[in-house]
């Protein structure tokens, strides 16, 4: 989620061109030197000398054939131009003749129409040139960013969103592999037995077997390893609620998960440790509806965000938000819930969009309306996360990671950035650095020279945010693998207490 420069016509004269409005008689070329198009069929008696040479003919008092009722005679007369008693129409034609077809350079070169220079505001061509903006005119910088657009400085820099395309193709390929495997194991590409999958996708057991986040495959659980009564698991090819198999077969990946002994020792060794289930589920989805919504969001706001901040920072936020969301879900969701999807990563991107709105609040046409749209999207996604089978903790964790990490990797707020100057290393502007600035990787010492106190203060905020999120991540991992503390009310952040929905995923000993 670079200051714009505006250029107007300059007042510089071409090289070797006199600054006076008309050439004097000493520099006037002979009539024979003029291009034939200038003197063919017309005489100086009608047009006057374009170079200010004295005119020996009596001017014609009739109206010029080039005069129209729309002419305002923008070019002033010059008493020294040698026009004598020429009429006002003749004088205006002299000015027009010289201003638009000035003979530059040597006498033998062609008329450089393509080198026609801009005129000063006091002598603009009333036919072709728009009046230049006056220096004292106030420019309204508010209201440039429309609804749905990114307002960060440098967000208009267009890049190819390679990561979004690669992630999208990978997720589609993985989903195709899911339905193929479900078809091979159960005889149907989508789950229809023992119950129908409302997401129109494979069974939960197939998702677990292919890498969904499933806590029993990742560490010891008191309700499983600490039980003296065997816990039963449905097989990946189950089409009935009576088809059970060992935990190692359900978890798959070569059977590296040891089967529980059910001897009451919850600290069995070796313990299940398929840690990659925090990463693989980012590329998996529970059904056609699930992947459809995620791809729609990814190919819209995700693509625009990558184009604005670059692929490296997009990758950091996308993957970190997805992993952090699954870690939080592993701590607070029911252990029997299998979680998949890129929703946590996309909530991290939504957090970047919210930061972009806050950073560019004064530059937007309708910031309140933009904020309402973001809030509505978040509320809808959060409410959907309360439905059975969906893990709202992944949404919450991904949003928190995206919000905090966005402070670290995005540039400063627009208003602050205008005060402290451009930040060439962390800005979204590609290419060469601006004058007076050196990229960090080229000169680490020079990068910090001449920075204002506001710049240092904002970097302290960034550093503090990075430290906080790292500490929280480490605490959650330690709690997941070693401590195992949870809270009784946290489950209501991911379920509604109706029809026993909050009891789904709870491992019960039969």
Automatic annotation (TrEMBL):
<feature type="transmembrane region" description="Helical">
    <location>
        <begin position="162"/>
        <end position="180"/>
    </location>
</feature>
<feature type="transmembrane region" description="Helical">
    <location>
        <begin position="308"/>
        <end position="330"/>
    </location>
</feature>
<dbReference type="GO" id="GO:0006508">
    <property type="term" value="P:proteolysis"/>
</dbReference>
<protein>
    <recommendedName>
        <fullName>Rhomboid-type serine protease</fullName>
        <ecNumber>3.4.21.105</ecNumber>
    </recommendedName>
</protein>
<comment type="similarity">
    <text>Belongs to the peptidase S54 family.</text>
</comment>
<dbReference type="Pfam" id="PF01694">
    <property type="entry name" value="Rhomboid"/>
</dbReference>
<feature type="transmembrane region" description="Helical">
    <location>
        <begin position="459"/>
        <end position="481"/>
    </location>
</feature>
<feature type="domain" description="Peptidase S54 rhomboid">
    <location>
        <begin position="273"/>
        <end position="410"/>
    </location>
</feature>
<dbReference type="InterPro" id="IPR035952">
    <property type="entry name" value="Rhomboid-like_sf"/>
</dbReference>
<feature type="transmembrane region" description="Helical">
    <location>
        <begin position="371"/>
        <end position="387"/>
    </location>
</feature>
<keyword id="KW-0720">Serine protease</keyword>
<keyword id="KW-1133">Transmembrane helix</keyword>
<keyword id="KW-0472">Membrane</keyword>
<comment type="function">
    <text>Serine protease involved in intramembrane proteolysis.</text>
</comment>
<dbReference type="InterPro" id="IPR022764">
    <property type="entry name" value="Peptidase_S54_rhomboid_dom"/>
</dbReference>
<keyword id="KW-0378">Hydrolase</keyword>
<feature type="compositionally biased region" description="Low complexity">
    <location>
        <begin position="77"/>
        <end position="89"/>
    </location>
</feature>
<dbReference type="InterPro" id="IPR002610">
    <property type="entry name" value="Peptidase_S54_rhomboid-like"/>
</dbReference>
<dbReference type="GO" id="GO:0004252">
    <property type="term" value="F:serine-type endopeptidase activity"/>
</dbReference>
<feature type="transmembrane region" description="Helical">
    <location>
        <begin position="336"/>
        <end position="359"/>
    </location>
</feature>
<keyword id="KW-0645">Protease</keyword>
<feature type="region of interest" description="Disordered">
    <location>
        <begin position="1"/>
        <end position="123"/>
    </location>
</feature>
<dbReference type="GO" id="GO:0016020">
    <property type="term" value="C:membrane"/>
</dbReference>
<feature type="transmembrane region" description="Helical">
    <location>
        <begin position="275"/>
        <end position="296"/>
    </location>
</feature>
<keyword id="KW-0812">Transmembrane</keyword>
